[in-house]
Structures are given as C-alpha cells and as structure tokens.
Design goal:
It contains 30 helices and 22 strands. With 731 residues, it is an alpha/beta fold. It has three domains: 4-302, 2-enoyl-CoA Hydratase, Chain A, domain 1; 328-506, NAD(P)-binding Rossmann-like Domain (Rossmann fold, 3-Layer(aba) Sandwich); 513-727, N-(1-d-carboxylethyl)-l-norvaline Dehydrogenase, domain 2. It has an eight-stranded mixed β-sheet with strand order 15-14-13-16-17-18-19-20, sandwiched between helices. Strands 1-2-4-7-9-12 form a six-stranded mixed β-sheet, with helices on both faces. A four-stranded mixed β-sheet has the order 5-8-10-11. The radius of gyration is 28 Å and the shape is globular. The structure holds nicotinamide-adenine-dinucleotide.
Amino acid sequence: MTDFTMKTDADGVATITWDTVGKSMNVMNQQGFVDLDALIDQALADDAIKGVIITSGKEGTFAGGMDLNIIAKMKESAGDDPARGLMEGLMASHAILRKIERAGMEPKTNKGGKPIACAMQGTGLGIGFEIPLACHRIFVADNPKAKIGLPEIMVGIFPGMGGTTRLVRKMGAMNASPFLLEGKLSDPAKAKQAGLVDEVVPADELLSAAKAWVLSSPTIVKPWDEKGYKMPGGTPYHPAGFMTFVGASAMVNGKTQGAFPAAKALLSAVYEGSMVPFDTAIKIEARWFTNVLLNPSSEAMIRSLFINKEALEKGANRPAVIDQKVTQVGIIGAGMMGAGIALVSALAGIKVVLIDAKQDAADKGKSYTADYMDKGISRKKATVEKKEAVLGLITATTDYAALKGCDLIVEAVFEDVGVKADVTAKVQAVTGPDCIFATNTSTLPITELAKAAMDAEKFIGIHFFSPVDKMLLVEIIKGKQTGDLAVAKALDFVRQIKKTPIVVNDERFFYANRCILPYVNEGVRMLQEGVAPALIENAAKLLGMPLGPLQLTDETSIDLGVKIAKATKIAMGDAYDDSADELIFWMADEGRLGRKANAGFYNYDEKGKRQGLWEGLSARYPLAEEQPDLHLVQHRLMFSQVLEAVRALEEGVLEDIREGDVGAILGWGFAPWSGGPFSWLDIIGTPYAAERCDELTEMYGPRFATPALLREMSDKGQSLYGRFGQDAKAA
Ligand code: NAD
C-alpha cells in the first residue's frame, strides 16, 4: 500500500490521490515524497496523459502537514554532518515540487509542459498547502470549516518546503507576512479573497472543475518563471519594497524581542531570496530552514508545542477506563471563572446548569456567553442562530435540584474551605456520590476539600486559567484518593472543550502557580535591591516571557499577592521565605493594587492604558549605583521558575516532564522558544545548570540551591529528555 496512487481517465486526465495509510488526515512522510515523485515522472512521461489533478482520498480535507520525524531522519542519516543531511534532504524535496511547477516545460522557452491542478477537499496546512502552491491552479471545496495556510511559525520553524518563497513571489512580502510570520489560517472564502487559492467550488464539483481547467489548455508558466517578472510590492531596493522590509524587520523584532530564531530566519530568507532568481531563492530558503532546524530551540518547540501537546490532548496520560464524555455539566458559582467555564462548555455542545446563590448573579454569568456570542456576530464569526443554540444549552438558576442528570460538577465559588464544603454537600444531596465532582480552586488542597464529598475517589481538581475562553491549559489535580474514573472524566471533558490538559498531584499551588510565584518574587526582590525596574521587565521580555514580573503582578493584583503571602506564611511557618513581602505589602498599603486600581508598579491613564513604570518605586528603593549584567537578571528570573519545576518533578507533583514543559508554555507563557523549563535545561545542559545554580546560591541564598535530581543528572551528564524519555513517565 502506498500513500499516493494514480488513475488516468478516458480523457487523458491523471488523478493522483493522496491517502496516507492508517491516518485520518494526510501527512507527508519520506516514502510519500518518493511515491509522489515517481507518479509525477510517470505522468509527465506518458504521452497519453494531458494533465494531472492532485487530490486527497480523505473526506473533507487535503493534508494536515509534514510528519516532523522526517527532519530527525534527515539529520540522523547524515551522521556527524547533520547540516549536510538536512540541506540535501530539503533540496531533494524541493526538486519534486519544482518538477510539479515546471511540469516538463522547456527551461528556456517555457514551451510544453502539462497542467497540474490541485483539488483540495478542505484543510491544507504546511506541506499540505506548499504542494498546492507548486501546482498551477488551486481549487478548494467550499467547506467553511476548512483551514488553509502555513502555521509552521507557531511551532518554531517556518514554511521551508518552498511555501515562503512561493507565497512572497505570488502576493508580495507585505501581503504574505500575516500568513508567514503569524501563521494566519483562512477558510476557503477568505483564502480566495486573499489570493492564496484560485477557485472555491461546491464540494461535489471539485474534481470536475479541476478537470475542466486541465483540459482547457491553460497557461501554466508561473509569473516568476516569466521574463521580466517583478515581485508584487517590490523587492528590498525598490522604494515601496524598502518600506515593507524596514517595517517587517522592526515588527518582527518588536514582537519577538529577538527571542524566536525562526521569525528572524524567515525574514532573512524572504529578504535575501527576493533579490535573486527563483531557484537560488529556494536554496537560500533551504539554508535558512536548515539553520532553524539545527537550532535547539526549534527542536524543543516542535517537541513541546506540536508532538507532546497533541499527545497530551489525545490522552497520553489517561487511565484506561471507558469513555467518560460529559453530556451535562453543573457549574456552581457564576462569577468570573464559572461564567467562562459555562461558555466553553456550551460552545462544545455540552448542556450546562449554571448555579449561583442569587438569580441575578446566575443570569449575569449566563450573559457572559451572550456577550461573547454578540462579539462573534459583530466580527462575522458567529450567527444569531448559533448564539441562540449556545444560550439554549445554559440554564441559569439558584435551584440545586436542576443538577439532577449532571454527570460532572465544576465548583467555582469563593475560595473558602467552608463555603466550598457547604456547596459540595448541597450538590451531592441532589446528584448522589457517583457524579464526578471537580473544584476549580487555585490554592486550596484537593485532598482537604475532598473531605466534604461523599466519595473522595470521585473528587478532583480541574483548574482553569483566566480568561477561560482564551487560556489553553487546564490543570487537572489528583487528590490523594482521587480515582481513575475521575481523572478520565476530567480529561475527556477537557478534550471536549478543546483545551490542553496536564495531570498533576496535590501539593501547594499545584504546578503552574507554584512556578510563577517565584518568578514574580524574584522580580520584586531585585527591585528591593535597587535593580532598575526597566531592566527587570526588559530582561524578562528579552527572554520571551509575555509579561515582566512587575507587569504580571499588576495584572493579577497586588492584594492577591498579599493574600497568598499571608496564607503561605501560615501554612509554611518558619520555612517561609518572606524576603519579597516588604515591597508587596507596602504597595498594598499605598493603594497601588495593580491594573484594577489604575495604579501599581506601572502608571495607568484614566482609560486604564498602561503608561511607564511608577516613579515612586525608585523613591523608596533607590537605584543601586552598579546595575547587574542583563544575563544575571535573566538567569535569576529563569532559574526561579525552572528550579521550582524541577522540585515539582522530584516531589512527584509532576509525573511527566512533557506535562511540565507544555503546561509551562500554555499556562504562564514560559519562554516558548525554549520548549519549556525542562527543555531549557537540556538546551543549556545539566552540568552548566548545576554550576550556575551553585553560583546563584552563593550570591543570593538557598532558594537557588541545586536540587538533588539536577545534581545527580549533572554528575552523570544526563539530559532530562534523555533520562525521562519522550514517551515515558518521569516517575
Ligand atoms: P468570583 O468571586 O468572580 O465568583 C464566585 C461566584 O461564586 C460568585 O458569583 C458568588 O456569588 C458565587 N458563590 C459564592 N458562594 C456561593 C454559594 N454558596 N453557592 C453558589 N454560588 C456561590 O470568583 P472567581 O474568580 O470566579 O473564582 C472562583 C473560584 O475559581 C475560586 O475558587 C478561585 O480560587 C478559582 N480560580 C480563580 C481564578 C482567577 O483568576 N480568578 C483562576 C483559577 C481558579
């Protein structure tokens, strides 16, 4: 069985059908390239064949992209010269796409050749759009759910199978930039509007439309193969093109702070490629692509954001029990979190009973969904009918009896053990002990809260992040007695609402909050020491953190910081390190509570827009005469988070380093270019990490002490992914 097959009809039109064996969506692998190449050769050589249609055998989709293991294989096959292996592998694949594009035309005169159309039933991503781009005409079925584009940048690489070079030559650098630099995806209608594809036709006319075109003796020479071709929008030394490239360069650096190698490499490939003939541009694209693929950052990003994220979503750590799909969820507490959880559940088609203490609070929670849908309607992303359907799934009430029939409860009432216990008892008086009960607590121990439940095995934490509709991560927390059924229920629910789960054990602050707090505290400590606030914030930004520690504190509010500090001190007693408290408590006393008070570490204007850092900070904490080196500030910020992640692993809070990495990026935006805290340790190497921790411990104290696990791995020269493996659990 091969992934590509060819059939020629009585009119001499050959249809090459791509149907990856054993997959629900086509993905390109090494053998796929070989098969496609052979069929193209055959079609071009056979005089009876007038033209070709490349299409998919999968209903409703064309192709999902490349099997990224190809890249690893190319590297491996070249032994100790992986760059050569990659470059040669890439150029061999380029040759196949170029063969499709040239289709047997005379090199000099562009005479001859056979028309090759691509007929896409739907979604075409990555190589699944780069192959169409090499064809002479792209037909797409009018399937509004289809997504077309080049999302490679999202996982730390860029379109390196000619997509970059072809798209820029097709539509100009400026117009191509959202598709290349932001990985923007479009439905067929929008793709046509933007000029990504040529024709959108009803699904049942797709092949006949492509065939009619193939038989119409069309012109097939690509503009860039014609004499006198000029790139739309101009090349870098053209006055208009000049502006584009200056702007793009500034934009990329502004957005990525230079922390993402792929964006810079992409821009270089576009810039350099636009000044040379097409075939040279392809070589340049391949060189930059090789450069990016050899950067440990891309390998780590692909592993975390593509391979492992998907594995976790598909249930890599799900207990083997029967399907636990949720049909009706009861949400208790219709505040900020409850309202968001109701929204994402209803959007996934799940019936929701949304309960609050007062009817107007419950109604307000439901109106969050109405507002969300209204916004969608005004942006043409939703319809009035869809809004009615989604709202129709939510019952907002104060009546606990309405919970009858729910197969999952998510409690999101006030963060108070007594209130939560009361609610648990009230709920279970209706649902009984078998309905899985989840709490959305962010700080209270699950095992403790489970005491109020009839059956602790059916009690679990499902911790959402705010805002619920935007944040992709959901942290599932097992209490000491939580059973498999509850874990499976939580995972199946998270899958239904299309978020990414990690499963952790029950310790203070679970995983994400546990790691983010030391980051914030380290920023605060530096400020107290007289480090310039702008240095702290910019050091974080240059690491690729979405928010500096001070801005993050403003967003989450200073009083929350005070509350957490007080509670932690009570819980930890003498072991509590209060060295970051002074500043936070003082800020709270000053009423500078953060964004919500329009005053925090930053100033805000009356509309709430963030201005510069507050001058009052340096009045109280004068700047030290000697400012630390940028790297030192960055290492303090990085290690404060990473060491906490390692401790979470050591203590068994984390059972799988993949969850630690994926959770860090999706949960609190941990430097995505690094692939997560464990990947970062592998990038810098455990021996260097341990050495650096020793230095930091000497300078700043035991909070940087090298954890025993890291010390052992450093002594043995082990890497995290080497030791714990990509698929194996850590423990
Ligand atoms: P919130 O104050 O916005 O909402 C709480 C809601 O619960 C209110 O509408 C309140 O009327 C209702 N409520 C209180 N007692 C009730 C009772 N006995 N019966 C029914 N309804 C009751 O709070 P929130 O920010 O939505 O947080 C809710 C929970 O989610 C807390 O446990 C919190 O720790 C957790 N959480 C919050 C965040 C966040 O960023 N805000 C993030 C993750 C988890």
